[in-house]
Amino acid sequence: MRNRILIYWLLISLFQGPVIRAHEGMWIPLLIEKYNIKLMQEKGFRLTAEDIYSVNKASMKDAVVLFGGGCTGELISPDGLLITNHHCGYGQIQSHSTLDNDYLTNGFWAMSKDEELPNPGLSVTFLKWMEDVTERVMKGTEGIAESERVDKIINDNIADIRKSAIQGTDYTASVRPFYMGNQYFLFVNESYNDVRLVGAPPSSIGKFGGETDNWVWPRHTGDFALYRVYAGKDNRPAAYSKENVPYKPIYHFPISLGGVNEGDFTMVFGYPGATSQYVPSYHIDMVKNHLNPKMIDLRTKKIEIMEAAMNSNPLTRIQYSAKKSGIANSWKRWIGENQGLERMNTISDKQKYEEELTNWISEDNSRKEKFGGVLPGYKELYDALKDYTLVNNYTNDVFFSRGTEAVGFARNLKPLLILYESNADEESIKSLKEYLIQSGKEFFRNYNQETDKKLFVTVMTMYGENLDTEWQAPEYIRLRNSCKGNFTKVVDKLYKETIFADEVKYKTFVEGFNKSSIHRLLKDPFYILSVGVTDFVSANVLPELNRLNRELQKLNKYFMTAQMEFDSGKLFYPDANSTLRVAFGSVRGYFSRDAVYFTHYTTLKGIMEKDNPEIYDYDVPDKLKELYYKSDFGRYVQVGEVPVCFIATNHTTGGNSGSPVINADGHLIGINFDRAWEGVASDLAFNPEQSRNISLDIRYALFVIDKFAGAGYLLNEMTIIE
To answer: What is the pLDDT of residues 201-251, one digit of tens each?
Structure first.
């Protein structure tokens, strides 16, 4: 049977090669016409480059937004309705959740616009236009060797370009480097800050499978949430107001019920965060063998503590769901990344490539003069960089990134201390106090002292065991010595003494803060530790780390140039850098390992097969089971089943979460949300045989909205193609 499947797959590869073969890359929308559209059309795309990106007419780019700070979303109605991933909106859903209204567990659906929930601090950003400004950025740097002077000229040029681009508008602008600083693009954006929650399925749908299924295929997660963008009555950005009206986009995606089949063209349009495809072998070695192992171990312990606390108390589950999810996502990706890099022999392949590149450089004196010092320079830099990077990352994870939370929170009071020491005016002090009290309210809303105590003992111990003494802050060393490394002995005493582990003590202290309070603050054990660690890293780690990274950027620019000259016949795509990109490929299954072939889609049947009421992440809602066993599927069916997710060969990364997945006719067919485990290392090395992006089938989202939630009125404002 396995041989029959293999022969079938090979025949498809031979006869449909251009259609189903993976196509690596995250491409610049402005340049699609020049570099990509012909190949896209050969693979089945039936539209033009201007349908994707245009400044002269409405195009797809006008319906794609940067959602918050690190996801993508897309507009699906003429009334500003937006869809993205459930995990992208997880923090907002959590912020609205209480024990009485647990929207994480039970879901939320606004049955009218009046019921939609505002989300202070959440914004969506539209790209208005982009432009290649390389010549303008580099103007005046010709013939100048001094790097600091060159950097100043470049920075001044960028400031002028940004200023002139948005003069007389309410837009924002940024200039971003591409190809490791060999090219620069201007991005002009417009942001809307009134974004309201419209609907979200319960976590038993939106996070079905939890961390167990994260980064894994087959997948059965209904990872979506609905929001609505609001504007002033002039359709322009406006601060939240009850008087605001739904935003009227110039373009929204039509939604296809046609589904997907093996070999179908797909395109992902979104904001991928960061990739490093062109780095040297030394970088891969640093990540795989030096950084990831220690960071994985640290986060494993943090996750175990959070999960135990969440399983013991419903309120703690609400408080720590987003925190745990945030740290677990990278944790599991690092594990898969290391396995993928090992399986693909990435380091040795990079080393072989570097040998060929070195030989090519040695064949020409001008090349030797220009590029000869790059690879030797890398070796020297990475010898130091790996230590400074680990110390910075590890210290941050122990003290400030969901490590010992009360300690990390303590440094927030340093600005108040500075104001008093500088004799600032009363109005400034009052304003800062109000901010600190509000931030304290938000902090303690999602804080559990007993959980934090367990985290404190664990991460403090690991910090001492895994970083050499020279990399440890003196304040930590004094604390460790005082308890002889047994933090269990002092944890209760410290949490009793500090003002940062109790909401009442914190609020009372801030409200009554005056000059006489300074002495009390400077004696607080967590303030001492927090500020001490911050100052230690600022003085002993960051200056050298920043210097090394500046030196690295110089080498990177030459290394990228060398690669492009060495392989001049290759079309290089730029690394992701949180700017709008196009990735395209085809729907396609893959061999996971010997004798294991994964098909390209999953169905509601698979959800029922995973159902386990004893496990929170696999407890299928009764209403969903009822719909399934009654076969009440409506029009959301393919071959007798409701499709849930599908995979394709599009090159994606973090930031692509929530991106629209588009078919050959420009219709929305899915919402990108993850990558398959075997291809997780694609940020560093794309594996065409196994790198797969995982998407929610849009028909499952519509099925949940319509049949499960009873919010079918929302479908009436969408453009649905039968």
So the answer is: 999 999 999 989 999 999 999 999 999 999 999 999 999 999 999 999 999
| Residue pointed to by tokens 């649905």 | 720
Q: What is the CA radius of gyration of the chain?
A: 27
Taking every pair of Cα atoms in the chain, the longest distance, rounded to a whole number of angstroms, is: 81
Name the phi and psi angles at 267, rounded to 5. -135, 135
Mean pLDDT of the chain: 94
Confidence of residue 178 (pLDDT cuts 50, 70, 90): very high
Token couple for 282: 């030394």
For residue 147, indicate whether it is catalytic.
no
Q: Count the Cβ atoms, other than its own, within 10 Å of residue 543.
A: 12
Give, in order, the Cα–Cα distances in Å from 627 to each of 239, 514, 617, 642.
41, 62, 20, 11
Helix (H, G, I), strand (E, B) or coil at 301: helix
Asked if residues 191 and 172 have their Cβ atoms less than 8 Å apart, the reply is yes
Full-model pTM = 0.90
Measured from the Cβ of residue 608, the count of other Cβ atoms closer than 10 Å reads 14
Tens digit of each residue's pLDDT (9 = 90 or more) over 67-108: 998 999 999 999 999 999 999 999 999 999 999 899 999 999
330 is catalytic: no
Catalytic residue among 23, 86, 87, 220: 87
For residue 73, what are the β-bridge partners?
A: 65
Q: Are strands 601-603 and 245-246 parallel, antiparallel or unpaired?
A: unpaired
Residue 407 · residue 529 · CB < 8 Å: yes
**N residues, the chain:** 722
Q: Is 378 helix (H, G, I), strand (E, B) or coil?
A: helix
Task: Find out if CATH 3.90.230.10 is the number for domain 2-123+193-276+579-721.
Answer: no
Q: Are 161 and 139 in contact (CB under 8 A)?
A: no
Q: Which residue type does 706 have?
A: D
Q: Which helix (H) or strand (E) holds 255?
A: strand 255-256
- The neighbouring-strand residues paired with 132 are 185
Tokens, residue 683: 């940020």
Q: Using DSSP, state whether 50 is helix, strand or coil.
A: helix
Closest CA to 573 of 5, 92, 7, 31: 31
240, 120 in Cβ contact below 8 A? yes
Distance between CA atoms of residues 407 and 456, nearest Å: 9
Secondary structure of 464-520 in HEC code, one letter for each residue: HHHCCHHHCCHHHHHHHHHCCCCHHHCHHHHHHHCCCCCHHHHHHHHHCCCCCHHHH
Cα gap 117→538, rounded to integer Å: 40
- The catalytic residue among 657, 659, 682, 695 is 657
Question: For helices 474-482 and 449-466, what crossing angle results, to 10°?
Answer: 100
d(CA 29, CA 269): 9
Q: For 691-709, give the secondary structure using H, E and C.
A: CCEEEEEHHHHHHHHHHHC
What pLDDT, on a 0 to 100 scale, did the predictor assign at position 504? 97
Domain ranges of the chain: 2-123+193-276+579-721, 125-192, 403-566
Encoded tokens for 526? 């967590």
Phi, psi of 194 (to 5 degrees): -105, 95
- The answer to whether residue 422 is catalytic is no
**What's the CA gap between 575 and 553, in Å, rounded?**
14
* Phi–psi pair at 344, nearest 5 degrees: -90, 0
Query: Rounded distance, CA 80 to CA 287, Å?
Result: 41
Contact (Cβ atoms closer than 8 angstroms) between residue 469 and residue 477: yes
> Distance between CA atoms of 295 and 338, rounded to whole angstroms?
12
Instruction: Point out the least confidently predicted range of 98-107, 258-267, 700-709.
Output: 98-107
d(CA 380, CA 395): 24
Helix H, strand E, coil C: the string for 590-641 is EEEECCEEECCEEEHHHHHHHCCCCCHHHCCCHHHHHHHHCCCCCCCCECCE
Indicate the DSSP class of residue 114.
G
